[in-house]
Amino acid sequence: MHILIVRPGAIGDTLLTFPILDALRTLYADCIIMYAGNSAVLPLLRAAGLADGTFDYGSLLWSELFATSGIRSPLLRDITQQVDYAICWLRDPDGIVRHNLQLQGIQQIVVALGRPPDRENVHIVRYLAQTLGIADRITDSYHMNLERGVTNKREDETIQRERPFAIHPGSGGAAKCWPVSNFAVIIHALWQHHIPVLLLAGFADEERVTQLLELIGTPPQASLLTLVANAPLLDVAAQLRSCRGYLGNDSGISHLAAMLDVPTLALFGPSNPAVWHPVGKQVQVVYEQELTHLSVHVVMGQIEKMLNPS
Q1: pLDDT tens, position by position, 271-294
Q2: Residues 207 and 213: beta-carbon distance below 8 Å
Q3: Is pLDDT above 50 for 88?
Q4: Which of 125, 166, 217, 282 has the fewest CB atoms within 10 Å around its CB?
Q5: Rounded to whole angstroms, how far apart are CA atoms 161 and 194?
Q6: CATH 3.40.50.2000 in the chain, residues?
Q7: Backbone phi, then psi, for 127, in 5-degree steps?
Q8: Domain 2-137 falls in which CATH fold?
Q9: How far apart are CA 132 and CA 22, in angstroms?
Q10: Cα–Cα distance measured from residue 110 to residue 272, given in angstroms and rounded to the nearest whole number
C-alpha cells in the first residue's frame, strides 16, 4: 500500500505525527509512506524509518491541491497517482483537496483539521489517530528510534556525570516563553553544581539567546557551556541524546527531547498541555496561564527531582 500524508505546520506539529506513522507502519505491513510536511523535520522522518519519500510542503507544488482547476503538475500527478490512501490534516472547507485527490483515482481519503476543535480537550496525537480510526493503537510513551544519522548515547558512569543539561529558552510565540532572566537563574544554579549546560537555539531565538548570554556571563569553566545554534534537527537530536535532562518551553525542541527519552521538563502556558504536551516516557509538564507568574523555585524543584530521582 502507498500512503501519502500531508501535514502543514511547525516543527512540533510534524513531530507529533511520528506516533501515528509508527502505528501505520505496524498496521500496514510493507507499506510505502510518502510525507509532505515541515522541511526541517523531514531528515528526522527518514532517519526514524517512518517515511520512504519526503517532500517540503512549503514548495509551490503542493498548492495545486487547492486549485479549483485540479492538479496540473506532472510531478504531483505522478506522486498522487501512485497513492492508495491519502491523509491530509489541513483545512479544506470547500472540499477542493478531497475532490482533486479523488480525480487522481485515490480510493481511501481522509481530510481532517490538523488540530482538535477548541471544545475538545483531547491530546493532539490521539485526535489525529481518531481521524484515522486507529486511536486504540496509540500510547502515551512513544519513543523515536533513529536508524541512521545519530550517534548512540554514552552510558559509561563516569561520562554520565559529565553529561550536560539541555536548555532551549525559545518557542514559536513570545507568550509561550518563560522569562529569559529565569532561565539565567537556572543556568547559574546548574553551574554551581558543576553541571554543564547545552544551550539550544533556533533562528527565531536569536534575540532571547543574546539576552540570556549577556545575563549569564562567562561560565566558571569553558566546559560548562556549549551553544548549539541553528543546527539541523538531526544534529540537535545527537546532542540531546547525550544529555541528562532537558528544560524548555512549549516548542518543537521540547517534543524532540521527549521523544528521544531525555528526561524532559516542559513549561506550558497559555497553550493547553492536555492537548499539546510532549509525548515520551520521561516527561513532566509545569503549567501556568501566564508564564511570567511561574517561579524559578518551582522549576528548580522539578529539575532537582529530575537530577536526583528517588
Answers
A1: 999 999 999 999 999 999 999 999
A2: no
A3: yes
A4: 217
A5: 10
A6: 2-137, 157-307
A7: -60, -50
A8: Rossmann fold (3.40.50)
A9: 13
A10: 26
Distance (Å, whole) CA 99 – CA 86:
12
- pTM exceeds 0.85, yes or no: yes
Which of 212, 215, 241 lies closest to 227, judged by CA?
Answer: 212
Q: What are 20-71's pLDDT values in tens digits?
A: 999 999 999 999 999 999 999 999 999 999 999 999 999 999 999 999 999 9
Side chain identity at residue 252, one-letter code: G
Q: What CA–CA distance (Å, rounded) separates 261 from 13?
A: 19
In DSSP notation, the chain reads -EEEEE--S-HHHHHTTHHHHHHHHHHSTT-EEEEEE-TTTHHHHHHTT--SEEEETTSGGGGGGG-TT----HHHHHHHTT-SEEEEES--TTSHHHHHHHHTT-SEEEEE-SS--TT----HHHHHHHHHT-GGG--S-------SSSPPPP--HHHHHH--EEEE---SSGGGS--HHHHHHHHHHHHHTT--EEEEE-GGGHHHHHHHHHHH-S-SSGGGEEEEES--HHHHHHHHTT-SEEEEESSHHHHHHHHTT--EEEEE-SS-HHHH---SSSEEEEE-SSGGGS-HHHHHHHHHHHHS--
Name the grid cell of 65: 491541491
Residue with cell 529565569: 182
Per-residue confidence band for 158, with pLDDT thresholds at 50, 70 and 90: very low
Residues 6+ apart with CB under 8 A from 284: 263, 264, 265, 266, 302, 306
Helices 180-192, 206-216: axis angle to 10 degrees equals 40
Separation of alpha carbons 307 and 163, rounded Å:
11
pLDDT digits (tens, 9 = 90+) for 100-156: 999 999 999 999 999 999 888 999 999 999 999 999 999 878 999 986 545 544 444
Rounded CA-CA distance 146/154 in Å is: 15
